Amino acid sequence: MNFKLVLLWTDAMIFLLLAVALAGAWLIRQRPHLLLPWQRLFRSRIGMVSLLVLSLFIVVGLLDSMHYRVALPDKNGNGQTVYAAEVLSVFDTLVGDLRSQNEKTYSAPMAVYLYAKESMETADGKILREYPRLKYGGAHLQDPQNEHTGDVLKRSLYGLFAGWLGGVLLALLVVSVAAARSRTTARQWVEARQHTPLNAVLASVILLAMLFGLTANLAGAYHVLGTDKVGQDVLYLSLKSIRTGLVIGTVTTLVMLPFALFLGIAAGYFRGWVDDVIQYIYTVLSSIPSVLLIAAAVLMMQVTIEKHGEWFSSSVERADLRLLFLCLILGVTSWTGLCRLLRGEALKLRELEYIQAAQSFGVSSMRILSRHILPNVMHIVLIAVVMDFSALVLAEAVLSYVGVGVDPSTNSFGTLINNARLEMGREPMVWWTLAAAFSFMLVLVLAANLFADAVRDAFDPRLNRTGDAK
Amino acid sequence: MIAYLIRRILYAIPILIGVNLLTFALFFVINTPDDMARVQLGMKRVTPEAIEKWKEQRGYDKPLMFNTQAAGSDKLTDTIFFQKSASMFVFDFGYSDDGRSISREILTRMLPSLVIALPTFVLGLMFYVTFALLMTLFRGTALDVAGVTLCVLLMSISSLFYIIGGQFVVSKLWHWVPISGYAGGADSLRFILLPVLIGIVAGIGSSSRWYRTIFLEEVGRDYVRTARAKGLSELRVLFKHVLKNAMIPILTGVVAVIPLLFMGSLLTESFFGIPGLGSYTIDAIQAQDFGVVRAMVFLGSALYIVGLILTDISYTVVDPRVRLQ
Question: Does B225 lie in the same domain as B77?
């Protein structure tokens, strides 16, 4: 199959971020003094389990960030390849039918029948008001009334078992490979790690694999989380929303970090008029309530985007640029807090002896900033970045509700909630879209919060670490 | 003290000018009034006359900063900048798109906002502090761990969920209070009960956990040991001595938001249909009423600066050692 790769702006940002993270990890591995707090983090049980959950989200997000357009069959026969307008991601391909198997309208999770009654003609020509069967959900059942529960049970058990088997095999594989690399037997390798959260991580791997097996097996035949108003699978929509959440949570940070870092340290280190100017800038920015500043900026961005329709070759690109702009704007409104923290820390650091020694040796200011101050504020940056992540994911939902968030065509938790908020008033109630969006968000944000706590505990030098001395 | 206050107020002026210039740049320079008119009137098939009329109705048909055609001082005053941006300093916000005076609208809508925001703030603060002190009292025990876990869980839930879930359970399932709406006078109690409750619950997680950290820091101090050595009960030590001393860091965060209570809460007000400033802002954003958004940005930053000054004053009240100069 022929296809053309599509690199959206946010994709590029995500892969840039990934490259930075990998390069950082490689650098840290070389330096034992930098490795120390990370080792502390790797010993935290909650931290590692939440990291595992987060990395699952990240994998979905990364898969969903590799976009391409499929080549259409050559109809004209002139040898010119034409690509479909629809931009797909690797994730779309992996989930396969989940994307395309749309019902007519709402259907409850695991349902076999549609949510609303329809007029149907029976074989002998009578018109009946009946709940029609779903086109895809449980379509393989001959007699849904009797088979439905049994089939769901059978599939669940089968999925759980397959997941368990896969999880156990994966855990065994990881352990034996790691043991082989350190030239010990698997038993010795595990026993040497009794003080680490290895057991908890392996147990979570197996649990998550079981959950995956269960969902995957059921999703093959049913809509596990139901369908929405236009019949799209809610599970698919929720999974697609993950990428937007991750982009907002991480790219925003990437955008604001250079400003916050440079201005913060410069203000604290140089003092005088530099400090006054920088303080003035961030006081002005932080004095505007952030929702209003974001709203004002997004309104203006909408005007610009509508004016320059020629910038974009497809609606996906336009939605993507809007997402990137939103990240930029969120970055502008959220850098002030970190900037203030860094300024305070730089004020403290510049009075220390080793900085004064560097100054008296005649080391240039730029070099002092980059070699002596920057490495010593990195723990603050890391803690702030991780802490901001969950707040940004939550903020996206609120902003999309207010109408200044992502493009309505972008899948995100905010748009999901916004589209579904009137469904609670229906009779019978349509609860599954809201429930799915909120639970996915809860798991993501909770994992991020727990991980942030673990990071703070491992990196904050002010916390006393009595248990660490050994 | 007075001299200090005057200096602080004078210092606020350049910040407000900065905010003003920023909004001016956002709303008039990056996108010209022509663009705004085109977006509001619909991109396609809009005649130049319609755009001119739109601009004239709103007073956007003047030059941006400098009017070369006018005479004398009108060169500076007969411009968009002077009439739309500089006039905000005297709280003259002009008219919204539906032709009402924004200043009057703000004045009438402040009260409903305050009726919701003030009880949420006061009751919430009392509840969070008590909850945090109780966690401190049971520090190191399973109760403390359970409390912190609850906090982390609560702060991981979207505020939209609290509102939608609260409305569903309390109003739709139990029929205790109306789902939304607002009435003046004594009748309003019925309407404000749920928004206030939800506002408090939504803040438990982050606030209580933050206060607990402050209290734990304070509990390790020498005066706490002295108080215990005197034979005071732990409860008394916590709720009297520790609470008083921990007020300083708590006030930093709390006093600054008091003026912003006037602005109301965007989400709560729009979900509960309360005619306050929060829902006014949301409606303006959704209707792309640029004039109202501009006014709210300015009002918000002015109130924020008032909050900063109040914070400084409150320091001297709770901590006599602090002298402002």
Answer: no
